[in-house]
Amino acid sequence: MKRDLHAHQRIVDRALSIAHEIGLEGLTLGVLASALNRSKSGLFAHFRSKEELQLEVLREVTARFTKTVIIPALAAPRGEPRVRTLFDGYFDWIRGRDRRSGCMLMALAQEFDDRPGPVRDLLVEKMAAWQETIARVVRTAIEEKQFRENVDPQQFAYEMMGIAMAFHHSNKLLKDPQAKRLARASFEQLLARSRSSQRGDIQRKSSRKAA
Amino acid sequence: MKRDLHAHQRIVDRALSIAHEIGLEGLTLGVLASALNRSKSGLFAHFRSKEELQLEVLREVTARFTKTVIIPALAAPRGEPRVRTLFDGYFDWIRGRDRRSGCMLMALAQEFDDRPGPVRDLLVEKMAAWQETIARVVRTAIEEKQFRENVDPQQFAYEMMGIAMAFHHSNKLLKDPQAKRLARASFEQLLARSRSSQRGDIQRKSSRKAA
Question: What domains lie within chain B, and their CATH numbers?
Fold first, then answer.
């Protein structure tokens, strides 16, 4: 049984590498079978359909994401250090520390944004959960009084995603040597304007409004 | 001759629609021929290769982008109104005002980021030119003293791209009803912290550093 699980994992790993090259939609049982030099019917014992294969690859990518990006952040102290660790982990992930899955979630988001079905549904669920994780970690910084009370965690998550996506674009497509500097500066700016040291300004503004 | 140009344009329009559905890499002369119910050899008079066809479709998308997003912004008054018009146009483009080409540049950026060749080269050239256009328009706002002197136009362009990309993601994949509000709020925030009304703060900070 243990050996079977290992064999299954090896097949999923290989499927993930192929999906990384050609996209998840191109990953059929036939393509996987010929890459593994196996019969297609042998693969049916592992995946009953192309869709099941795709779902399993997607689960594998998100499991790696959780292990590489989310778990280490949850081990960091609550508040800004945790927000920072989360961003750093995401940044490294996009740069492709784990080359077989790095960037793949962004590729999938683009590939499946107009392909309805269970793969898209699972992807949407996972991406929404990721944005909710960012928001939850931002809330720890508000609770610790490191971020202002009126920071909108959803807005912070949205902007952090934007910084990451622009980095992916500048780094991978444009190969802009400034990409890293621009991403870092944007994120530091986002942190700076979330910090509670600016609270004075905001309170003045709200009392002016109330008056 | 004029009729030939019209015929050619109709073929390019059709090719663009197909590329929008299946991606540019899937757009072969064979696929286009069967969509048009024509012979593949008849298409050779228009495009000598799949690559030439792809390049022409990409040129068509970017020409529409220039006409829809850039030209109207250049007609707006220099400075913040022009920056705002540029963002609004880009925002509408991403939402798919022109359904056949909206979002397509983002899909292409993802599709070709690891496919070296003339299509990728042209795409990189066009995307870099777009970011430079944003930076140039931001410079008019600095020259008009509406934005602070120390606003980094490249950084502004990077953050504006990030806001747009996160919007595309939230709107198209996640179908988040908050997507528009979050994009608008992020952009207003970017404008607010670029405006020269904040100059006092910055000058205080620099003189403190100098002291």
Answer: 51-197 (1.10.357.10)
